[in-house]
Specification:
4-stranded antiparallel beta sheet; Immunoglobulin-like; 5-stranded mixed beta sheet; 180 residues
């Protein structure tokens, strides 16, 4: 009788140990999954049919007062879909900054109207691919000449990374030069 009690206690102990190890492995993985990552991006002169038009390559030569756009396509997973299902919207921020600090924080996320109109297509893409994509952009004008960058932030205003880039925050840069 004593051996059976010990065996049951041992099995219970081992089962509990297995569960704790599994949680130790899986919980950090689930928590570390981002809401989304940037798949593609482009500084450009405009956006047409959800694609960048006249992209810049490192330097934007513009007239004073003209806009520069940062267009991007995000890749979002299950956490983002769950947020959209619950809140019917998901903020995505572009924080435009120069060496002097942040000048604009623009919410370019998925608004409730967009979610309502495209929820079925988003769910379908997620079901087929295990993720969904979303294209969005911000525009800025009234620049000072020099180096500018945009911090891409999630709904919790945490830095976002680029797909396949590791854990670094994604922060595209552009140099602004004024044409005479």
């Amino acid at each position: 009788m004593g051996v059976r009690v010990i065996n049951r206690k041992m099995r219970c102990f081992l089962s509990l140990g297995f569960i704790l190890v599994a949680l130790h492995i899986l919980v950090p993985y689930a928590i570390s999954q981002p809401l989304f990552e940037v798949d593609r991006e482009s500084f450009c002169k405009g956006v047409q049919e959800r694609e960048p038009m006249s992209p810049f390559s490192g330097v934007a030569e513009i007239r004073e007062g003209e806009s520069v756009f940062l267009w991007m396509e995000i890749r979002a997973g299950e956490r983002a879909l769950t947020m959209l299902e619950a809140k019917k919207q998901m903020s995505i921020y572009h924080a435009w900054a120069s060496g002097k600090g942040v000048t604009d924080i623009i919410d370019i996320g998925i608004k409730e109207k967009n979610w309502t109109e495209q929820a079925a297509a988003i769910r379908n893409q997620f079901k087929k691919q295990g993720f969904f994509t979303w294209r969005t952009y911000s525009a800025k004008r009234n620049f000072k000449e020099g180096r500018w960058y945009v911090s891409v932030l999630d709904a919790n205003k945490r830095p976002v990374r680029k797909v396949d880039s590791g854990v670094e925050a994604f922060r595209p840069e552009i140099v602004i030069r004024f044409l005479p």
